[in-house]
Automatic annotation (TrEMBL):
It comes from Carapa guianensis. It is a single-pass membrane protein. The lineage of its organism: Eukaryota, Viridiplantae, Streptophyta, Embryophyta, Tracheophyta. In plastids the F-type ATPase is also known as CF(1)CF(0). Component of the F(0) channel, it forms part of the peripheral stalk, linking F(1) to F(0). This is ATP synthase subunit b, chloroplastic.
Length: 184
């Protein structure tokens, strides 16, 4: 400990110029040595340090420039993607609107065609009913006519005798003969 305090005390008492030698006091010589080393480093290392700093500065500037270019490219790609997104959203909306209107149109077409088909079926049904009615009426007429004919034949056969029958046949033959002469 005494050496340490002696070193501080010895700093106050610098010897005057007159002798040259090695100072073995570390605390007294350390700041001088450090200042000499720093001076030499600054003098000789100034160029190297300046080059290192310039290279580092250039690398940082290049990195910033590249980052800005990448950022610009990313912003450009982002804008393009947003534009594509807007376009796709508009197309999706248009498809949705067109799809809904197409569905509504198809629905109306289907309803209209169903109504037309129902009308046609109703017409076919009415025609079939009318046809069946006419057929039933014709069948009834034929039966009535057959029954009336059978009744008339029965009445004629019971009322006509042979002589009246022969006279009716002769009169009819005479009428056909007269008609034939008129035609010829």
């Amino acid at each position: 400990m005494k050496n340490v305090t002696d070193s501080f005390v010895s700093l106050v008492h610098w010897p005057f110029a007159g002798s040259f030698g090695f100072n073995t006091d570390i605390l007294a010589t350390n700041p001088i040595n450090l200042s000499v080393v720093l001076g030499v480093l600054i003098f000789f290392g100034k160029g190297v340090l300046s080059d290192l700093l310039d290279n580092r500065k250039l690398r940082i500037l290049n990195t910033i420039r590249n980052s800005e270019e990448l950022q610009g490219g990313a912003i450009e790609r982002l804008e393009k993607a947003r534009a594509r997104l807007r376009k796709v959203e508009m197309e999706a909306d248009q498809f949705r609107v067109n799809g809904y209107s197409g569905i509504e149109r198809e629905k109306l077409n289907l309803i209209n065609s169903t109504y037309k088909t129902l009308e046609q079926l109703e017409n076919y049904k009415n025609e079939t009913i009318h046809f069946e009615q006419q057929r039933a009426i014709n069948q009834v007429r034929q039966r009535v006519f057959q029954q009336a004919l059978q009744g008339a034949l029965g009445t004629l056969n019971s009322c006509l005798n042979k002589e009246l029958h022969l006279r009716t046949i002769s009169a009819n033959i005479g009428m056909f003969g007269a008609m034939k002469e008129i035609i010829d």
